[in-house]
Amino acid sequence: MPIYEYFCPNCRTKFELLRPISRAAEDGICPGCQQHAPRIMSVFASFSRGADGSVTAVGGGCASCATHACASCSLN
Ligand SMILES: [Zn+2]
Fold first, then answer.
1. Where are the domains of the chain?
2. Residue 1 Cα, ligand 1 centroid: separation in angstroms?
C-alpha cells in the first residue's frame, strides 16, 4: 500500500497515511486536530550523487513542500 502525504492547513501539520490507491484522492484526517487535510504531492527533487556516494540536492528548495520541513527540504 502506498504512502501519501497530507498537509493540515488548520494546524500546519504534515503527516503520512498508508492507504489504498483507490482512496488516494480523499482527504486525510489530521492526527493533531482531526480536521480534513488535503493530499500533497511528494516532491522528487533532483539529486546528484557524488563520486564519494554523498547525495546532493540540485536546484535548491522544495517548491511543492508546504511546510519546508519535509525529508527533501532537510537535504538542502
Ligand atoms: Zn491539523
1. 1-40, 45-76
2. 23
